[in-house]
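anyone seen this seq b4? input:
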Amino acid sequence: MNQLAQENSQSKQRIDQEELKILEENLPSEYQPFEGLKFPLSANQNLFKPSDKNNKNSALISPEQQNGKKRFISMPDRLGLSSRLSLYNEKHQFILGEASNDQVAYRPIMVNDKVVGYLGLKPVLDQDDALSINFFSNQKRYLLLIYILTILASLVASLLLATYFKQPIQRLLNATRELTKGNYQYQVKINRNDELGDLSTEINQLAVILEQHENSRRQWVADTSHELKTPLAVLQAQIEAMQDGIRKPTPEHFESMLRQVTSLKKLTQDLADLAQAEAQQLKCYFAEIDPWTVILQEVENFKPKFEQAQLSISTQGEGVKLQLDIDRFKQIMVNLLGNSIRYTEAGGEVRVHTVQDADSWTVYVDDSPLGLNDEQLACLGERFYRVDDSRTRSTGGTGLGLALSGKIAQALGGTLSFEHSPLGGLRCKLTFPKYTKV
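predicted toks r here
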């Protein structure tokens, strides 16, 4: 392989040297003047070479070459001169070459300082092609300028938009930090009609709700401590009186202390049930029962207390089969009947009756005055709310019964509401839907 490559290289060098020698021998001179070129130039295929009969390559020379005639070799025409060159006389009259009506560049041909003719050269491109190239070149520059201006405009717009959105977002972030610190009175004001404005409104509403919950929690703790402190203080005073010998440990005194313990136990149980109900963790065991039968039983159990309070009670209703927790339902009725006893004047009346339709069953507990005004009725059912605090304490109320009853009713799938009674007192309305509890 290496030997063949060396032979090819030597052969190529030999041919190049021969061609150079041929060109040198055929340059125009006073003994061998230039006889002209053929147009187009691609027609010039031979260059003159004297006959060399002793040449070892003579077999490859044409008869014209062997007879001493000119021969031409092909010449590269990368500039397209064959179609661009033309010859004119001294009067710019066309003689030879490629005639053209387009603009031609003339170069004079001088002989003894005299113009004997002109050599014409057409442009590489036509005028239309030159205009097209110039147009596209200008368009390229314009597009580049537009591209740069677009980038600059985008950067400016991005900076303006970033500033436009960054400020309200930073204010919203500060608002969330204030809420995290517990500053629920903090309000953020963003006057916008987009999503950021809606978000600021929602954060402000969240702050209001959190403040309400915090106030409710504080009130809950304060009320709970107050309610627990009262029976404990009474017990402490009675025990200290016995220790000091001021009060003797008689059965009557022990009975009074037991009542305080019972009241304290009931309060703690109500607090536990209410906390579970608000956390939706109140355990209920559902079964099919007749709630009207349960009501009649509880009314019968309360008759001694009604008689002691000098109250009359009447019942009228129909039974129905509902899926309820019987113990929780009893707890509601005990609270409602006990509330009527505490807040109805002696000689008054309590009436229990039911109403039902195809979808629900409702029991009403109506009592006669005392009664409530609209403001008191609106607050009824809140934790530790008492219409008459002294009267409730004397009858053993904790202020949690109605609030707990409302939560239990929700856990059972029903509702408990309060209205003015036709008898002049309070109406408690307990409603349950007629459906099977899953």
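Residues 127-180 form the longest helix (54 residues). The chain has three domains: 33-121, 195-278, 287-433. kinda curious what u guys think
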